[in-house]
Amino acid sequence: MNEWAFWGCLPFLGAAFLTDMLTMKIPNWITVPAMLAGLMAQGLTGGWRGLLFAGAGAAAGFMLLLIMHIIGAVGAGDVKLFAGIGAWTGLLFTAQVIVYSLLFAAAIGWIIMLKRRETFRRLRSVARLLAGVFYMPKWTLFKGHDCEMLRFPFMLAVMPGAVTAFLGGWT
């Protein structure tokens, strides 16, 4: 990934961060232009190879986050935003951002659980899930006392994940 691609993607990440923090949604007026601008920028700078690079990144970001959306871990705006991140930065960098974002999200989740004092109850739920070899969970692991999802804006984890990938990722 070229450094300019990260800087081109950053305004879209900033806008998504602000709207996600304020409304817990990432609107299409951010995600669609992010993807189109990434495809166009990569196509203009790299020709067909750039378009292939951007398309592979967009597809990877979309598909990986779609799986997370299906299990209820992220919203649809996050799925489309990662397609935009992938269009700008390609497959490898997008995968790094996802991994780092999940690590930051896990840390944020633990902090929330510690604050709510429900850590040990959730650990017992994990142990019960792991103990049942033929048991198919209903994803209740992510629910709190009143069966509400443990929710926070995913951009709270994506922004530091993207910066971490940029500053010291695997590439």
UniProtKB/TrEMBL annotation:
<feature type="domain" description="Prepilin type IV endopeptidase peptidase">
    <location>
        <begin position="10"/>
        <end position="109"/>
    </location>
</feature>
<protein>
    <submittedName>
        <fullName>Prepilin peptidase CpaA</fullName>
        <ecNumber>3.4.23.43</ecNumber>
    </submittedName>
</protein>
<dbReference type="GO" id="GO:0004190">
    <property type="term" value="F:aspartic-type endopeptidase activity"/>
</dbReference>
<keyword id="KW-0472">Membrane</keyword>
<dbReference type="InterPro" id="IPR050882">
    <property type="entry name" value="Prepilin_peptidase/N-MTase"/>
</dbReference>
<dbReference type="InterPro" id="IPR000045">
    <property type="entry name" value="Prepilin_IV_endopep_pep"/>
</dbReference>
<feature type="transmembrane region" description="Helical">
    <location>
        <begin position="91"/>
        <end position="114"/>
    </location>
</feature>
<keyword id="KW-1133">Transmembrane helix</keyword>
<comment type="similarity">
    <text>Belongs to the peptidase A24 family.</text>
</comment>
<keyword id="KW-0378">Hydrolase</keyword>
<feature type="transmembrane region" description="Helical">
    <location>
        <begin position="51"/>
        <end position="71"/>
    </location>
</feature>
<keyword id="KW-0812">Transmembrane</keyword>
<dbReference type="Pfam" id="PF01478">
    <property type="entry name" value="Peptidase_A24"/>
</dbReference>
<feature type="transmembrane region" description="Helical">
    <location>
        <begin position="152"/>
        <end position="170"/>
    </location>
</feature>
